[in-house]
Design a protein that fits this description.
InterPro entries: Expansin/allergen_DPBB_dom, Expansin_CBD, Expansin_CellWall, RlpA-like_DPBB. It comes from Nitzschia inconspicua. This is Lytic transglycosylase. Keywords: Signal. Helices cover 11% and strands 27% of the residues. It is mainly beta. It folds into 3 domains: 128 residues, no CATH class; 118 residues, RlpA-like domain (Barwin-like endoglucanases, Beta Barrel), CATH 2.40.40.10; 93 residues, Expansin, cellulose-binding-like domain (Immunoglobulin-like), CATH 2.60.40. The chain has an 8-stranded antiparallel β-sheet with strand order 17-16-13-14-15-12-11-18, with no helix packed on it. 43% of the residues are buried.
Length: 383
């Protein structure tokens, strides 16, 4: 009996030295076994290209909030190894800086040393916190520009136009009538459009009354606000000028008074895009493994995407960088080698710097083909 026990202890120690376990797995989000490209041992996981990975000794964690998930309303919900950080408007589960995952492992996973996180903004400001991508992505993805979370309304004006249900300058394929945005869209300009990087953002537009003297124009007493998604470009519009489609304008003015009003005074603010589905990726028409471009649709939360990067089959890095250098309607992807090899992992960064990564999303290079990303960003608070 003693010899059997000693043999078991020896085997357990040997497995620990080799970094192997029967239940453990490599994780980037600190909750799921979501990393498959870094080998099957703890040592392989923790030395995998500086991706800020962690080894889950007991496999996936349950009933906790994963990395980058919102903890605004429950600061104790983060998975082991994560802390709830942020300001009074938005909080997010992020790695606890400076904690090291060592051997022999403890029951609660901790982190390898990481670089210092960006300091959070002052709670008195309106800006949400800036969250850094992992080191492997930092060298590939541009630093995200941070949009303010608009809590208070700003003054503005709204006009209307016929709209473009088939996409407009932002390249969206269709405008849903039965789900958000319920047929309501807006063309934006200036810093709001931001050369196409403002596409997808959502705004709450409230009718105040006629812009100037127009006694025949008035707001709808039943519903004087509408939430719209930026889907098109208004070249002559400044930042506070929103060119609504007809459906949106008719929603907030008196019955069928869009044409009578023409232009109205508004209050507006940036709000969360309330999509209740996962993100959709679409390969651009005419694309191939030699020239690849894509669209990103139905992004919840900030709505607008700052950065897209791809990791091709057999690669450890997200070294295919996508941008809007060829126009605002799609993301053109620049690969250091050609042709690109499928399947492709996809990394998306929103305007707050939050990262979502999907593995094996794009499996071929057929043009006009859609891919389910399988997840979406959390919403952003506006109250």
């Amino acid at each position: 009996m003693i010899s059997i026990l000693c043999a078991a202890v020896f085997a357990s120690s040997l497995l620990a030295m080799l970094g192997k376990t029967t239940a453990g797995c490599c994780s980037q989000n600190y909750k799921d076994c979501d990393v498959s490209h870094c080998g099957t041992s703890k040592n392989q996981c923790l030395s995998c290209n500086g991706d800020q990975l962690i080894w889950l000794e007991n496999g996936p964690q349950s009933f906790c909030t994963a990395r980058w998930g919102t903890c605004t309303y429950n600061v104790n919900s983060c998975c082991n190894g994560l802390s709830c950080v942020g300001n009074q408007y938005y909080r997010q589960c992020l790695p606890a800086v400076g904690i090291t995952q060592t051997a022999p492992p403890s029951n609660s996973p901790t982190l390898r040393p990481t670089s210092q996180q960006t300091k959070m903004p002052s709670p008195t400001g309106m800006n949400p916190p800036v969250f850094l991508p992992s080191p492997a992505l930092t060298t590939i993805l541009p630093t995200p520009s941070v949009d303010p979370t608009i809590v208070e309304f700003s003054q503005g004006k709204a006009t209307y136009y016929g709209g473009n249900p088939s996409g407009g300058a932002c390249g969206y394929s269709s405008l849903s009538i039965s789900t958000f945005p319920f047929g309501a869209s807006v063309a934006v300009g200036g810093e709001t459009f931001d050369d196409g990087y403002g596409c997808g953002a959502c705004y709450e537009i409230s009718c105040v009354g006629p812009y100037g003297s127009n006694p025949s124009c008035y707001c709808d007493g039943a519903q004087d606000f509408v939430i719209v998604q930026a889907t098109d470009h208004c070249p002559e519009c400044e930042t506070s000028h929103f060119d609504l489609n007809l459906a949106a304008m008719n929603t907030i003015t008196g019955q069928q008074l869009a044409g009578t009003c023409g232009i109205i005074e508004t209050l507006w603010r940036r709000v969360s895009c309330p999509f209740q589905k996962t993100i959709t990726l679409r390969s651009k028409s005419g694309t191939s493994e030699w020239w690849y471009a894509l669209h990103v649709d139905d992004v919840a939360g900030y709505g607008a995407i700052s950065s897209v990067a791809l990791r091709q089959h057999g690669s450890a890095e997200f070294n295919i960088v996508c941008d809007k250098s060829n126009g605002p309607s799609f993301w053109l992807c620049h690969s250091p080698t050609s042709p690109i090899r499928a399947p492709l992992d996809v990394a998306l960064v929103d305007r707050a710097g939050r990262i979502l990564i999907g593995e094996n999303i794009i499996t071929d290079f057929t043009g006009d083909k859609s891919w389910d990303f399988g997840k979406n960003f959390d919403g952003i608070p506006t109250h």
